[in-house]
């Protein structure tokens, strides 16, 4: 089977983990996310929760085919926090994932190597505590047809086990469906070949 239409992400936010290194405390969190707005909300929430922490370092990756990522050191020396965290997202093979490590400084400097190791470990621990799930990359289509053709459309949806996302049934009907990427072309062709039915990719 071609695995290009699946991706791995988190089922739920991970439980909080704590990693200690020379009196510094590193709290690690992992969240499933799909938008930058969600990421901002998680960060705001953690800033309220850990009032007094010095650094809120994080990395995220969004997207399945067009991948977008960012790593933020939040005041730590360049590339000592965000990139080691991002490296863990990559090594777990995840996307649509945010990992945040909150640091309370313990008075002892860790040095560049120590910081990289601490942030990487905290990120790894958070991801190890999270439940990782596999999801399919779905393509959404809209099917447009008149009410009299309803049975034809519903028969294909049932036979092919297609997920209905939204439907409006009036004189003219519109159904939004989602199908796995690997089946998308076949589904599109089936509906294209049915008389009086229009299908378009959303």
Automatic annotation (TrEMBL):
Signal peptide (UniProt feature, chain positions): none
Gene3D superfamilies hit by this protein: Impact, N-terminal domain (3.30.230.30)
SUPFAM superfamilies linked: Ribosomal protein S5 domain 2-like (SSF54211)
InterPro entries in the record: Impact, Impact_N, Impact_N_sf, Ribosomal_Su5_D2-typ_SF
One BP annotation, GO: regulation of translational initiation
One Pfam match: Impact_N
A GO CC annotation given for this chain: cytoplasm
The Impact N-terminal domain, residue ranges: 22-127
Record family assignment: Belongs to the IMPACT family.
Protein name: YigZ family protein
Species of provenance: Flavobacterium silvisoli
């Amino acid at each position: 089977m071609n695995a290009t239409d699946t991706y791995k992400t988190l089922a739920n936010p991970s439980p909080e983990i704590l990693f200690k290194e020379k009196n510094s405390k590193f709290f690690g969190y992992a969240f499933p996310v799909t938008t930058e707005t969600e990421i901002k909300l998680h960060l705001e929430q953690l800033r309220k929760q850990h009032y007094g922490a010095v650094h809120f370092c994080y990395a995220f990756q969004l997207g399945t085919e067009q991948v977008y990522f960012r790593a933020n050191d939040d005041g730590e020396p360049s590339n000592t926090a965000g990139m080691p965290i991002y490296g863990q997202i990559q090594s777990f093979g995840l996307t649509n994932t945010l990992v945040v490590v909150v640091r309370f400084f313990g008075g002892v400097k860790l040095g560049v190597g120590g910081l990289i190791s601490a942030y990487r470990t905290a990120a790894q621990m958070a991801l190890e505590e999270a439940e990782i799930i596999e999801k399919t990359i779905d393509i959404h289509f809209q099917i447009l047809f008149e009410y009299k053709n309803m049975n034809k459309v519903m028969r294909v949806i049932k036979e092919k086990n297609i997920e209905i996302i939204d439907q409006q049934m009036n004189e003219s009907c519109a159904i939004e469906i989602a199908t796995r990427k690997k089946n998308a072309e076949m589904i599109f062709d089936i509906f294209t070949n049915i008389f009086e039915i229009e299908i378009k990719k959303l």
